[in-house]
Each structure stands twice: as structure tokens, then as C-alpha cells.
Amino acid sequence: MKISYDSVIEALQHPNRTVRIQAANAIGELISKGKLTRTVSGEVNNHIHTTYSFSPYEPAMAAYKAWQAGLTIVGSIDHDSVSAAEEMKAAAAGIGIASTVGFEVRTSFLDTPLADRKINNPDAPGIAYMVVHGIPGQAIEKCREFLKPINKVRNERSAREVDAMNELLAGKGISPISFENHVKPLSHADENGSITERHILSALAGTIMEEIGTGEALINYLQEILGVKLSGKILEYLSDRDNPHYRYDLLGVLKANFLPKFYI
Length: 264
Fold this sequence. Notes:
The chain is 49% helix and 11% strand. By secondary structure, it is an alpha/beta fold. The protein has a four-stranded mixed beta sheet with strand order 1-2-3-4. The model has no long low-confidence stretch (mean pLDDT 94).
């Protein structure tokens, strides 16, 4: 059967994990037949976020994008989650690129001499991101169990952040955001994926676009109602109604201007 390149690439983002892995195997077949080639850079990236924290890419697509970019090793790292691990390993093997899997957690240094210093977390002093790399396959389930209580507490915190954001934006001409109805569906929480502040901001961006519109109407809303100053490239991006990355660009504006005000 002839494999359509466009259809198999599209399938790497399919909602069903089994379909995504099958698509990765089909990519591997195209590679083995010389239908797809690349220039190998020799570089490695073992810290790639997926849809299991916040990224536009499912693990299978991330593996393919890494192969396409010439990397020799690809690794998934998600916040408080290892749910991308099995797919990343299977998809990478199917495509023909080496892989590693791991996770990332926030860690408090507030009881140390580093309490008042920003370490590697730009949002808060005394809080650091710690990464576990290279988890062997037989330890993935153990890691998943370790992360479950962390994710539970994180979701409770994220729900409080949504409440704080709604309070901040009350009377600003948009409907309140629901953690359960607007934020959670943007994540893979049903598969033990994590919910991040970017999911919250993506839900807010979606509501603004739906209720205010895009282009000039949205720019006016940001500047006149929310008091956001826009200039340069971002003003250009938000002026373009056909911008394929509109929601992500708006998310970036909201992150810079509002995240510090409701971040816990």
C-alpha cells in the first residue's frame, strides 16, 4: 500500500496514541525506503516538552521533528508527568532515532541560603526546576506513582490560580474561566499529564479570541481595557487575523503581563 506523506504526518498528531505510534512506524518505513532523508547534525536534545505538559506536539510528532532537525537523540521531559514516555520510546524506535525519557518538578530551596535568589525558575526566587533524565523502561510506572500526589496538589494550586486570575479580570468584559471546563480539556490530565500555567493562559487566550475577536478588536481590548502596551513584532502578529500561531502569540502577551499577578 502506498503511504501518503501528508496523511502520515497528520496522523502523528492524532488523538489516539496507538494511531500516532503506527504513524511513526510508517515514517520509519518511508525513511528505510529512502523516501525521506535528512542531514544529521550530531546534536542532542533530551529536554523536549510534549502535550503531556504544554507543547503543540504529541510525543510521536516531537520524535519526528527531532529526526527531521538532524538530532541523533530525542528525549521527552514533561512537568510532573512521565505519560509521554512510552509513546516517545516507541515512536522514536519506529522512526529510527535514539531516545531518553524523564520528568521535571519544581523544588523548594526556601529553607536554604538560596531562598532569595532566582535559580533556574524565572517566575519565583527560591524555587528550582529539577530534572530526572534517562528513566529505564521498567521504572516508568514507579515514577508515575511517585508523581501522582504531586500532580494532585499541583491541580489544586492551578485551580486557585484560575480563581485569582478571574478575580483580577472581573469587570473586564470577558466571561470567567472554568478550571474544569476550559483549562483541563486543553491538557492530557485524563492520562496523568500535567496542567500548567500555560494551559490556564491558553484558556484565557481562547476566551478572549472567542468573545472579543481578533485583529483590531483584540488589540484595542488589550490596550484600552487591560492596559497592555503592544509594539513591534507582537503588534504585527496580533494584527494578522490569519496568523496560524495567533493563540500562542496572544498567550505570550498574557504570560508577560498577567502571570506574575496570579501566580502562586
